[in-house]
Amino acid sequence: MTDRPVVGDPSPSPASAPDPPRWGLGDATAGFLLGLFLSLLLASLWIQASGSDELSVGLFAASIAGNWIGLGGAVWVASRRKGSGSLAADFGLRVEKADIGPGLLAGVLSQLVLIPVLYVPVHRLFPDVDVSQEAKKVTDLAQGGGIALIAACIVLGAPLIEELFFRGLLQRSAGRRFGPRAAVAISAVTFGLAHFQPVQLLGLIAFGVVLGVLAQRAGRLGPSLVAHMAFNATTVAVLLATR
């Protein structure tokens, strides 16, 4: 005898798929431009208030704060208005125990091995080029309490904001439109250009590729965030030890 369907007790329908996020490359572009504008604006205001355009802890803090407001603000607004409202769900802001080892290894090796190898041909053609010149200018400012502020900005703040923006908002937006490989390339090149350091551009793009691949393979920002922190921490430690 065949079973008859029970009236009033239909089989449960499969759960509907969540709506795709509405944020995209337009949000990333707006955030990038806003960060640039606010960085220049706050730096100009500091110069006017202090009466000096020489690099100082205050000028450094004003410039980087403006940039972070633009980049971080774009990520937050995109998630709140066009996403789920969760940075972990939208952009993969999550660090797991398995991310720490590979992230530390990738960050330290990128700083101590990848970058020096990349610049071997550059140093042969241009022996006087100092790849770490811009970083030295910043760490040379570190005196007394300024050391903690600069170290916190470089080792903690910059990796968090930049990973959220470049490997979170930008790379994920580009991935939906162009695919994962193109997305890694786009985020890496934009990451390099965003620092406005011509001599360091090659190394920044190469490290951006490392960070992009880490984030892409893990499906979250944990490995790239740890690697970015380790990379910057190694830079600060080496420069402070040798100045």
Describe the structure.
By secondary structure, the chain is mainly alpha-helical. It has one domain. The chain has 10 helices and no strands. Helix 2 packs parallel to helix 7, helix 7 runs antiparallel to helix 8 and helix 7 crosses helix 9. The termini are far apart.
Uncertain parts: 5-9
| Radius of gyration (Å) | 22 Å
Helix content: over 70%
The coarse silhouette is globular
Distance between the termini: 89 Å
- The overall pLDDT average reads 90
Q: How many H/I helical runs?
A: 10
Biggest β-sheet description = none
Instruction: Tell me the number of structural domains.
Output: 1
Order of helices and strands: HHHHHHHHHH
Q: State the secondary-structure class.
A: mainly alpha
- How many beta-strand segments? 0
In what range is the share of β-strand residues? under 5%
In short:
This protein has 243 residues and is mostly helical. The protein contains ten helices and no strands.
Kindly list the characteristics that best describe this protein.
10 helices, 243 residues
In terms of topology, how is this protein built?
Elements: H1 25-50, H2 57-82, H3 87-91, H4 97-118, H5 120-125, H6 133-139, H7 145-178, H8 180-194, H9 201-218, H10 222-242
Helix pairs in contact: 1-2, 1-7, 2-7, 4-9, 4-10, 7-8, 7-9, 7-10, 8-9, 9-10
